[in-house]
Amino acid sequence: DILYPYAICGLLIFPFRNLSPNKMILIAMAFLLIGTYRENSDFFRDKKIIQKGQAIAALDTAKVKLTEQQKEDLGKFMGFKENNSKEATAKAAEEQVKRVKGKNYPALVKQLRDTNMWLQSSYFYEHYWFDILMFFFLGMAFFKSGFLLGNKPTWLYAAIAITGIAVGLLMNYFFLRTQYRLKFDNYLFTQQWKLNYYHLRRVFQTVGYLSLLILMYKVTPIKKIFFSIFVPVGQMAFTNYLMQSFLCGLFFYGVGFGMFGQLERYEIYFVVLAVWIIQITGSHLWL
């Protein structure tokens, strides 16, 4: 669960609580640079594997004897190409559906345990501690500056909302258009894509949507009619957070209704709507 890495990162940010908002934003940007470098270092490592492998594969082995290093590089290339093809991705997805939809509860627990151990250890330290800390520092900066409380001018929230959402969606569009054109073949994508900007587009979109929500809250009629519905949900945030996992686990896993892998993307929004109705109603009744 994401709460575990949140707790670890939460221990680290406490000493920085008295910094000014500007310094917190600078620290957040430093983490953004680390994340962008990290994702591209892995990405260009894979591109190098492809480039080396293609060059070696083009050699005429009848005339040129491959060195041990070339054989190793060729093996890495062939392995990467095979494991990242659209066929390999589809096969892995099919196997995951079978595991998750199985009726054997101990087997499901074992699978989730192994996944959890990987996520909470090597994957956390290699891939997303800097991402969490980046947003933590942004959140603290927004709170201390009054931005999160709606104390800034309305035009500022509107400008940030429009810019953040527009830039974020545009970056997502180019990324997904390429993925779709290549039929989600990660080998071809790695070969053709120029630069990863996952962390950057998330910052634009997150800050954009946050500004939009604050802007909506500042408009009094919307605040009274719309946001009052969600007040009890927010007052029970931890309970509702865990309840979403419970409800979706019951709906999707084989030990429940087994709907994992059965829905089209648009149909998942009906699940979202149902969970929200349950949680809004339950929160109002409980409080």
Percent in strands: under 5%
C-alpha Rg (nearest Å) = 23 Å
Shape: globular
Distance between the termini: 27 Å
Count of extended strands? 0
Sequence-ordered SSE layout with sheet pairings:
Layout: H1 3-13, H2 21-57, H3 68-83, H4 86-101, H5 105-145, H6 154-181, H7 186-192, H8 198-218, H9 220-225, H10 231-235, H11 237-252, H12 265-286
Helix pairs in contact: 1-5, 2-3, 2-5, 6-8, 11-12
Folded structure, characterized:
The protein is mainly α. The protein is 79% helix and 0% strand. It has twelve helices and no strands. The protein has helices at 3-13, 21-57, 68-83, 86-101, 105-145, 154-181, 186-192, 198-218, 220-225, 231-235, 237-252, 265-286. The protein is globular and about 80 Å long. It starts with a helix and ends with a helix. The model has no long low-confidence stretch (mean pLDDT 91).
Key terms:
single chain, 287 residues, mainly alpha
In short:
The protein is mainly α and 287 residues long. The protein is built from twelve helices and no strands. The chain is globular.
